[in-house]
Design brief:
Number of helices: 6
Distance between the termini: 49 Å
Number of strands: 5
Radius of gyration: 21 Å
Strand content: 5-15%
Largest sheet: 3 strands, mixed
Length: about 180
Amino acid sequence: MPAAKMVRDLKRRGVDIPYPTLRDFARRLRPATRPTPEEVRFGTVPAKQAQCDWSTVGTILDEHAHLWQAILWPQVRTRVNATLSHYTALKLHELSDVNPEETHITVPRDLRIKRARPRFLVVHHADIAEHEIVFVDGLPTTSIERTLRDIATLGNAVVLHDALRDARVSNLTIPPELTNV
């Protein structure tokens, strides 16, 4: 699907991503391959051989389409490392039974975006160290330890206790300051 069509489709869904940002992102995902033998064209005598055109159809937007939209939203002219965080990260790490209605991302503390934020998006501002980012299904997500710390700052004791319980059952590392919770 051309990037221009994707931008139009996303705008209809309430996501405003600039065309150059989506185009550049799609170029990084597009495989740089040489034609396979099936793709090499050659001429034949009429009625001696049949040819047909075909291609593999794929998409960068999968069941996590809304999460990709959230990660791409802050990128305007420069690469901004948006990271899925808080309740969204809990869901991706399969900690607790939380099912967030909104998508939570964290962007650098000093980043200010002037365009309208999509309704489904909650933006947190904080600096995240490289070691606090992991990839879940290819999506940049805060690590389990960082996610548990973030949930603790939100003050939702029920979700925090569920997440800590699930982390303990799975023998995951719990931040030292949360071991007695």
